[in-house]
Write a structure and sequence with these properties.
The protein is α/β, with parallel strands linked by helices and 148 residues long. The chain has one domain (5-132): 3-Layer(aba) Sandwich (Rossmann fold). Helices cover 22% and strands 28% of the residues. It has helices spanning 5-16, 35-45, 81-86, 115-118, and strands spanning 23-28, 60-63, 70-74, 99-103, 125-135, 138-147. It has a six-stranded mixed beta sheet. A hairpin with a 2-residue loop joins strand 5 (125-135) and strand 6. The protein is globular and about 35 Å long.
Amino acid sequence: MTHSPEETAALGEAWAREAAPGWTIALCGDLGMGKTQLVKGLARGLSITGRIASPTFALVNEHLGGSVPLFHLDLYRLDTRAQIVGAGLDEYFFTPRGVTVVEWAERWWDEVQSPQLRVQSPRGRLRWVKFTSESETRRRIEYEDFGA
């Protein structure tokens, strides 16, 4: 549970301590749940400076100046796997070049899909994260790890 944007960012910063190239962090949840706040904390934990914003219109932001490159994807404007592939975004999943965070990940991975099918690379690790609102200021952030 987090109770503020700062707490959500602090969780992301803590996750950065264990994040390694090949990781994909899949974020699911409605608008305003704190997905981008978590990414801001993750970036801070990876020593990435500069503005971190959701790439809703750009689709991907690459942050290369930290201890590990961070690739931040937003699939909100894409409805199908074919559109995601057509935009060239699938190449970022489980990349050994850095850590990938995917907002609106359920657009690529169907939530009902079995966990074993979510990881598509033997070297990859997937952290499946679901955000839900408990109240105006309280967020439940549940996650499960799959893969290497």
